[in-house]
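Narrative progress, year one. The postdoctoral researcher (J.K.) led the effort to move from monomer predictions toward full complexes, under supervision of the PI. The following entry was the first complex the group processed end to end, covering 999 residues in total.
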Amino acid sequence: MSAAPTSTRRVGTTLLGVLVALVFLAPYLVMVLDSLRTSTDVKTTPPSILPRQWQWDTYATVIGDGRFVNWLQTSLLVAFGSTALVIVVAIPAAYMTARYRFRGRMAFLVVVLITQMFSPTALVVGLYRQFFELNMVNTYGALILTNAGFNLAFAVWILHGFFSSIPVEVEEAALLDGASRFQILRKVMLPLTRPGLVTATIFTFIAAWNEYIVALTLMLDDAKKPLTVGFRSYVTGYEQHWDQLFAASVIAVVPVVILFAIIEKHLVGGLTAGSVK
Amino acid sequence: MTPRGRRRRRQTGQISSGAAWLWLAPATALILGVVLFPAIQLFRASRGEYSITGLRTGDAGWSNYTAVLNHPSLEVVVRNTVIWVVVVVAATILISLGLAQLLIKQFPGRRIVRWAVIVPWAASLIITSQLFVLLYDYNYGIINHLLKKVGLIETSIDFLGDDRLTLASMIVVGIFVSLPFTTFVFIAGLNAIPGDVMEAARVDGASAWKRYRHVTLPLLRPALMVASVLNVIYVFNSFPIVYTLNDRNPGYAHDTTITFMYKLAFESQEKDVGMSAAAGIGNVLLILVVIAVYMKVVNWQEQTR
Amino acid sequence: MTKKSLVLAALTASSLGLAACGGGTGAGNADGGDGGDGEQATSIKLVAAEYSKDNTKAFWDEFAKKYKEESGYDLEVQIISWDNIDQQSSTMIQNNQAPDILNLNAYASYAKDGLLWSAEDVIPQESQEDILDTFVKYGTYDGKFYGFPDLASARALFYNTELFEKAGINEPPKTWDELRDAAQKITDLGDGNIGYALPLGPEESQGEFSMWLFNNGGMWKDGDSWTINSAENVETLEFLKKLDEDGLTQNNPGRTNRADAFDLFKSGKVGMVVGFSPLAAQLDEDGTVDYEPAPFPTNNGGESQTFGVTDYLMAFKKDGNQDAVKKFYELYYQPDQVNTFIEKEGFLPVTESGVERFSDNEDLKVYLETLPNAQLTPTDDPTWDKVKLAVQQNLGAAMDGDPKDVLDKLQQTAEQQ
């Protein structure tokens, strides 16, 4: 193809990209601006696009608040813990069901799928009882297990899909070389499923990061609450700190976006490496 | 290249059930412990009679189920749920297919656009819902403000309090927050398509649309499956959006079955945990049937064999 | 193909079957919970509602320390936001894990379920005598005092003095007609000004409506019979609907929650709203709106009635916790504890000694004078706990429908319970 149409097309694509980015960011831009207003300014008619009075110290207030720091720590710990657990548990299950036939394989996959359909909202009472009996109410472990359990299905499923799509010949060669199943999984299969792993990781991380109902019920100690629950303290029927709510929200979104930015690079790299073949 | 031939060769071979289940053991334990056990508890609760305080006062047999089925608002709640799920999922998939196509193209700043797309997903749903309540607001909402400024409207639109608009306003937010995940599933799917396949089609002289229709879409099938099934489940089970955007409206006129279930237990005049549990079991059965039918239609077995 | 459906069906059936078997082993019913075996508990748990982000937790943490020093028992404190406390407490009780002390806005249903200690078991005599009579009355279920108040609030009419001046109104309205005139004049100022902010959305519509109906000689309940659809109450709701129809309220009052009405008032665009001391505290902090509280106007110009609200600290009856619970109340009702809490949170006292202590506070004068005669919703009737929810979910519908119909249905709901 000649260069001219490609570059016009590229400009068009870029413009479209900018537009998409704007649409996705606009609401959060409002959030950032609201975090820099006074709480009253957030609720003033008519609204103004820019703060009538810039208030920068809200961020200092929020970060200086020990409770907020605790909530942030809990959220990070639980999100990382759940993600690690899901990946470790899902890989062998997905590999096995993708590559081998055995009794109960279908049943396993169906059960996995069914578990995906339960909403934690409906199950909180049962979860509370269970973790009470295990003496795990108010522990990070309970939250990590729950988030891992409810997000396992997705990880198994997506990895299953990726494992299935890899040609058998790749493995057969390694098998002939005398590699064990575990070695094949680690050295041959996992590098090829990196996009799937990345998707499963991001997915679990974000789901755990956003979880609300279970954390609300299980984490009794204020210091152990995650951000999603802690947010509730900023705006209630008795007092409304809109500025702090939005400042806290901005702070909470940033680590996830950064995490994604890091992983996304790997995703692109892994994909280019994989698609050369 | 017959797909069937390729598919058949995906299995490596036989393995003893014992050895296989060893690999599945951790996953099985997690599922049994964290999902199935509480689900059994839920079923037990649905057969119990409860006081408004949450105290179990006796056995209810199936009366909680009949109470839910005879609830005057059930019909409207189910109708809302169907509209909510179908519209949000369908629109999400269509828009995401386009977005993914755009985001796999090379252009300057692509990475930044991808980051922007992830933001609604990275922000907690609770926060996004709260944010949209404010954006939509009748008095302070920026949306009304802008519409008035450009002269499209004279007086504010009551996006969340006008019965004709409430569901639509919630659907927009539902789509907005579902796009990132779906788009990225499609990006991963598109990237998994071997370059030589597309190259071959291009050499054959197929038009862009033909290539998309006959090469890309069929190869995207697994991604489409994942995206549609999971979106149906997530959108169906979605709680914060409907709950937060609808919190000003009395009764059940804009509730879905999930918020209906929650309100039955804690906010409605019924305030009955047993009835709510029965509604919860109903929710699971409903989604189970929907997914089973869907899988039958798309022939899931063929995919996983 | 059908094989898959079969697997699905079998799985569903087996998991449900499993569940059915599980049911047989019996989910232990109302049998005490932890701390059993007649042993003395060494630690008790308090589940408290969060009134304010900065003060509630700080107070209870401090209180727990003091309590440990004085009684030797540990006090485990859990603070929950108002949005979630109903769900939390219900979950705990379903699992037989009720806390020892629970802070909530209702108690009668818990008393009816036989879960609570009554005053004679856990409240020292002198504390009992100190609690204001009106709260003892509304805290008494079936002849026994169970609903121990933690703090109180009373509502008043807040009016924006600047807007009143602009509209040429010299003093706050004393009758509903005057209120309507004032609302009309403020609305006529234009520029988005709103005469009266009327929150009849599901959050707290029973509170707003209580204030109005008490000032029309109405009641929720008269003796043992419900009077929700009495002539006075229908007249009241019709008056409110008229206010809306005449454009004297904010947009869509049937779908406006209390917090939103407060936000409107704080933005300086509203002439009048029913407020209480926490709103006053925030207005004072912001300093952007000039306002005054006034007694709520009555329909016929009679003496203004105030609507009072109290929340409760109820004590769950468990083996071995009686002494620890008693020590808790002994400490809480000491004037420097209960009143410090109330002062910090910006509410009103629940005891005689508290009223005395707060009496020199000018800001609270308008509430304090009316507090001992405040009317409450019938919190002493467990039925009210459900009726309240029915009111919250349905009252707003009267703005688009027939007020009498709405109240008739609520009356029916109350009588059916």
